[in-house]
Amino acid sequence: MRVLIVGAGIAGPTLAYWLQRLGHEPTLVEVAPAARCGGYLVDFWGAGFDVAERMGIVPELRCSGYRLTEVRAVGRDGQRISSFAPSAFVGTGDRYVTIARSDLASAVCGASGGRIETVYGDTVKALDDDGDRVCVTFRSGARRDFDLVVGADGLHSQVRALAFGPQERFENHLGIVVAAFDVAGYRPRDELVAVMHADVGFQMLRLSLRDDLTLFLLTLRGGGDVPLDRPGEQQAMLRRGLAGAGWEVPAILDSMAEARTFYFDRVSQIRMPSWSRGRVALVGDAAACPSLLAGQGSALAMVEAFVLAAELARTDGDHVAAFAAYHARLADFLRSKQDAAKGLGLAFAPRGRVQLAVRNGVLRLLNLPRIPDLVMGRSLRDAVELPAMPVA
Ligand SMILES: Cc1cc2nc3c(=O)[nH]c(=O)nc-3n(C[C@H](O)[C@H](O)[C@H](O)COP(=O)(O)OP(=O)(O)OC[C@H]3O[C@@H](n4cnc5c(N)ncnc54)[C@H](O)[C@@H]3O)c2cc1C
Predict the structure, then answer these.
(1) Which whole number is the average pLDDT over 138-148?
(2) How confident is the model at residue 228 (pLDDT cuts 50, 70, 90)?
């Protein structure tokens, strides 16, 4: 089957890899002019790690990623509130890595060895599903027919908008915005330590990277109406929101002007009753974004792509049956991840003094055995079994 996959992030290239292995003809179209680099880091673990292993990319992920030794929470004056190992969250063992999202995407793309047709700098403008095929009109003006179209184009999916309706219908904004930016030469540095400071309304996290770079990740209450395409207004909003903040926040805000990359978005979830319509389906954040609060969206995106490919194989290309089975297998699991993530907003941006005190109190306890499981048990476990894939 000829399958157009829109979006070359995490889910798209994973799906393309498996479809090609199964003998299909995937084409990837990516709106960015080239593979994206930089951006924020993700913790990568859980069932998605198993998919990465089956794709043979784990050594590369370990090489380009980081293995953090400590997560440290500090107060206004930099005093230590709590310190614990990342394994408190993701379990012991070495089946996790902290890695730039772009490096993960690059490893997933690379797994196909350049054998997949990939078109950069274009996107879909119209989808005409006549029941037998989908006639796709691209922004460039080109028109092509495909047997299936899969939207892997993230939180603000264009495929979802074209095939299912406007984003507002499916987006659940969690009342928080996120900004991530990296700066060269920032001091101080704490190698392999995620240092975070929260106060009422926000959390700022600092992570020292290779090549003298430092990544900052900020989650801040409010701001759902800030335009996503105007960095100037976004940065002004961050400055307003963080006026009077302690720790290194004033210096970090000063360094923002020199940021190499600047990422800003609403923290939202996508909740849909179905992920397919006719010959069009969705995967990854486009279908069921759990938000960054889940700390697992990229791994889940890979699981979804794997399951979709496996179901297309199991049903011998019967897309109606495959799409239904894909949804039936994952819907409850992803919904439980979303529900669990939603409850973590107080950790990323406490609403008031009470929530801040609760957050800090819980962080102090995280070193104790069984506490991470009690606090985050539902979101820590991946209650999903990967289906059989009829290729090694
Ligand atoms: C700040 C932050 C921190 C996070 N931390 C973690 C974490 O610790 N662990 C974790 O697992 N996950 C984390 N996530 C979530 C994770 O990044 C996403 O869930 C994951 O990237 C989803 O993969 P995807 O392929 O569905 O979408 P994306 O990775 O967003 O990829 C979508 C791709 O589609 C392209 N695209 C967009 N629109 C179009 C269009 N119209 N046409 C063509 N292409 C298009 C984009 O350019 C992009 O390449 C975090 C997210 C954020 C924002």
Answers:
(1) 98
(2) confident
User: Which amino acids bring their CB within 6 angstroms of ligand 1?
Assistant: 6-12, 29-32, 36, 40, 42-44, 101, 123, 152-154, 158, 178, 180, 217, 265, 284-286, 292, 295-299, 301
Decide if pLDDT at 39 tops 90.
no
Q: What is the pLDDT of residue 225?
A: 79
Joined tokens for residue 374: 């009690």
379 has a pLDDT exceeding 70 = no
What CATH topology corresponds to 2-68+95-170+269-345? FAD/NAD(P)-binding domain (3.50.50)
Atom 37, ligand 1: residue with shortest CA distance: 153
* Closest residue by CA, ligand 1 atom 15: 297
In angstroms, what is the span from residue 311 Cα to ligand 1's centroid?
A: 23
Can you give the pLDDT at residue 370? 72
Query: How many whole angstroms from 154 Cα to the centroid of ligand 1?
Result: 5
In which residue are the tokens 């859980």 written?
Answer: 46
Q: Residue 174 pLDDT > 80, yes or no?
A: yes
Pocket test for ligand 1, best of 42, 108, 109, 167 (most atoms within 8 A of CB): 42
Average pLDDT over residues 126-146: 98
Kindly report the average pLDDT of the chain as a whole number. Answer: 94
Q: Mean pLDDT, to the nearest integer, of 12-40?
A: 95
Nearest-atom number in ligand 1 for the CA of 8 is 49
Q: How far apart are CA 98 and CA 57, in angstroms?
A: 14
What is the CA(12)–ligand 1 centre distance, in A?
10
Mean pLDDT for the stretch of residues 45-68:
96
pLDDT digits (tens, 9 = 90+) for 366-375: 877 777 666 6
Q: Give pairs for 90-96: CB < 8 Å, separation 24+.
A: 90/43, 90/45, 90/46, 90/380, 91/45, 91/380, 94/67, 95/45, 95/49, 96/43, 96/44, 96/45, 96/49
* Domain assignments of the chain as residue spans, ordered by start: 2-68+95-170+269-345
- Helical residues (DSSP H) of the chain, grouped into ranges: 11-21, 47-54, 58-64, 87-90, 101-110, 158-163, 231-241, 249-255, 285-288, 297-314, 319-342, 345-348, 353-365, 371-380
